[in-house]
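User: Can you predict the 3D structure of DUF3108 domain-containing protein? Sequence below.
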Amino acid sequence: MPLSFRRHHTLPLAALLGLLAACTRPDSPQAPVAATPTDSATAAATPPPAPAAPTGAASCAQPFGLTDGTELTYQLSDEKKRPQGTQILKVASITPHEAEKKAPAYTEVLLKSSLYDANNRLQRNDEYVYQCRRDTVLTDGRLLLDPALLRSFRDRRFAYEPVHLAWPNQPTPGPLPGGKLTVQVSSPSVDIAQVVTTVSQRKISGPQSLTTPAGTFQCYKVEARYEYVTQARADMARRSVKRVVDYYAPGVGMVRSEMHDADGEPDHVAELIKRTPAAR
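Assistant: Sure. Here are the predicted structure tokens for DUF3108 domain-containing protein:
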């Protein structure tokens, strides 16, 4: 689940975030009802890793082991491993919802996202929602958006139709449901274009050990195909394809996300460098 710093044709915890989309405890020291997902469709050198912050077991009571005030910091790097900025996700609230009629109980997490450039200048603020139901975390489908795709549509209206990505708390190797984000671009009088991100061919493997500046984690690897289409009319579309590899831990969340060109060449990386628990 790439984070939001991606650049189209070269790359939200905005696509990212990004986001920004589980690893278990380290080896050592919107309320929207999510649509049912369907499959239709090394960072730069860093100082020795510090021990990861304590995390709880994966459960829907605490999706990705998050608690009120937990803060996740990601380093964003380009294809040459040069730092391009940081993204900070902070838990604003965690709200349990009881089951109603045929709808199962679920927990909703509201996250505040701040994206900074390489000079630590704030670029944008966003809000995203995670949900957890039936032992699966659903990350906000709006994190699939590459903001660069909308830059040419200034002062237009945007309507978002997300299909959220699923991340099991108890993963087993095999296929995973896909996801999708459709953005309808319009003016007050006419539809202008449709911008669609489709995630397909998701498969999970692992676990495997992964070390970042935030610590060492037992992660599950999720590989997927991302297709980006901007369509202004039926006979005119701009299209590109990326391969994305995510490493996540059910009790932690996203640990590392790698984007590759269709030919396998590295593009962009987002890596967890700090996880700060809520102040007591």
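The chain has one domain: 23-276. Residues 4-56 have pLDDT under 50 and may be disordered.
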